Description:
The chain is of the alpha+beta class. About 35% of the residues lie in helices and about 20% in strands. The chain contains 20 helices and 26 strands. The strands form 7 sheets. It has a 6-stranded mixed β-sheet. The protein has a 5-stranded mixed β-sheet with strand order 10-12-13-15-14. Helix 3 packs parallel to helix 5 (about 120-135). It is flat and about 105 Å long.
Amino acid sequence: MAEEFSTDGMLDIYLFENEQLLEQLQERVLEQKDEECFDEESINEIFRTMHTIKGSSGIMMFDNITAISHKLEDVFYYLREYHPENVPHLELVEHVLQVEDFISSEMAKIRDGSPADGDATDIIAELDKFLDKIKNGGTAEEKEAPRQNVHVEPKQFYIAPVATSASRFYKIYITFFPETEMVNVRAYKCVYALKELAEDLLYSPEDILTDERSSDIIMEEGFRILLQAQCKEEDIREVITVGYDIQRVDIFECKAEEFLQGFDFGDQEHVIDLDSSVEDIEARNPAQVVEGEELKLSDEPVEKKPEKPEKPAIAPGDFVIKSREPGKQKKLAKDKPKSEKASYISVNVKKMDQLMELIGELVISESVVLQNPDLKVPGLNLNSFNKAAAQLSKISTDLQNVIMSMRMVPLTNTFQKMNRIVFDVSRKLGKDIEFEMIGENTEVDKNIIEHISDPLMHLVRNAVDHGIETNEERLDSGKPDKGKVTLSAKTEAGKVWISVMDNGKGLDRNKILEKARKQGLLDESRAESDYTDKEVYQFIIQPGFSTNEQITEYSGRGVGMDVVVQNLQAIGGMLDIESTPGLGSTMNLKIPLTLAIIDGIVMETAGSSFVMETSVIKEFVRVKEEMMIHEPNGDEYIMIRDECFSVVRLGEWYGMKGYKESVEDGVMLILELEEKKVCLFVDKLVGEREIVVKPIPSYIKKVKGLSGCTQLGDGSIALILDAGGLVE
């Protein structure tokens, strides 16, 4: 019985599959939110999604999820069967998203180990009210109402047979894809789904939940079901459909006598021969032909003795139609054609992280071998070693690229979440806003996506709340009725650029300066007119800074933009703000493609090693002392090709001892980041390396200008410099 088995081993696959279904559901709903109604395909898809979630949640005994998904299934069952008119589309969209939110929140509780104890009563009541509304608001013509979509919770695995004159009998044979995992659980889901139709239900193997070996049997022999029900074959195929796990579903209607035989067909093999001539059939079966009578071929199986008695008995579903060449008859054959299918496997992210760490250690070990001091002994013949080392480097690079590509995932799901935010916020604020996505298929490291979800959410909310005007304000200013928020992504030089653009009122420079003056953010020695627009716009990322006069549900508290910047800096990203008054604003996020391995330049200062990412270094320069400009307050500048750069001495920046003080004894690195430039002075350059990024240990206090650390080929530790912290 359902209450007697453990669901622990099924929980992960339950969460994974339903999360995928909910993401697809939200994407489909948001795609059609601006249409007049859902198309037939979408109605069927949403119905199937709710039906699947209802069934799997029932198996897992999450009653509240089962109840709410069943109620939404009722709504789309009525839409599919009755085709009512005048259905309030936006209200239906909101109901679907409300159900999706509830199920997602309950699944989040389950994933955290908490009970799924959310109360769905109010949402179910609203869905009931909505269903009554569309039933009463249909056309005046009376149509035969569809049969009710009643969910009866089965009490047992085996349902006592109650055959009537309307009962029909089926043999069902299910074949799973070879790469499918936990097929016993998936087989049980099929059984559970069929119980709503069944009068009598048998399946083989029987112990699919208690015996893990049943998975091997199902993969080898298929999953066989005997079903007695008052339904058509189409009704069964709606419940059990071919998908990413089920490769084939064969359904054969049979007689009651054949149904009662169960799965044991004795030593007889049933064959319908439609290829052989009458003479051949007579020769093989003389006892079956009476002289003077015409041989008739009927649908009844003809019995013949098996040539190999030891061959296993034919199981239900083994008879499949095999196509013949054009012009020839069809025959029933037992062999099943093999179909090619791309193979996929779901892997725990933690395992991917471990694999990435091992690749990082491999890169470090490779450096240790190739840069070993023993190889620098004069007179060594290293030709063979260098060839082997080159091959090792090639293999490790290819391996690294493959692992990197496995971790890369498209931004599609993240962008769709922003679509949902625009829809919800715009509806609550009463603004008519269109959302556009560009480059959503751009791939980024999964860890990066986890860090940018919150920043994107804040930026999109600000665009809808701060940026886009109300419908009345847009009308008064002669703008198009609809506001527009555009979310775009592209890759460039190992970086990902994500932009949030709106066609609203833009940022008000004077209002920002006024607020900055009140909060004491302006430099008293500098005139306000000396601040560039970009410098003024950077004030809005300060903690507690907000130009909203009134606090709303979404903004006005001065939090959000500083969180955006903190999250971006944690992954080596930056935020650039552009705005044109009256036309709109653009928030540009520049983030790395991956956090794992980067190309960097190794340098030394005061005997310590540092690394700077190659992409921010524009030039290496040897300079003369007379090129330096020394200010009374200690600041230093240098003129290079008639351009003035501020100078940061790395040894002085970190208070080190023993660094070279004369600029003629070291090297200047010109760093450029977001149109800001600075000269970094170091003692010497070591070379270019592939750098495995490691986080700074938590017991070390956060130090400005550092983003991580790494291990070099000689075993020493080098600190990775953060260009953003040095350029500010």
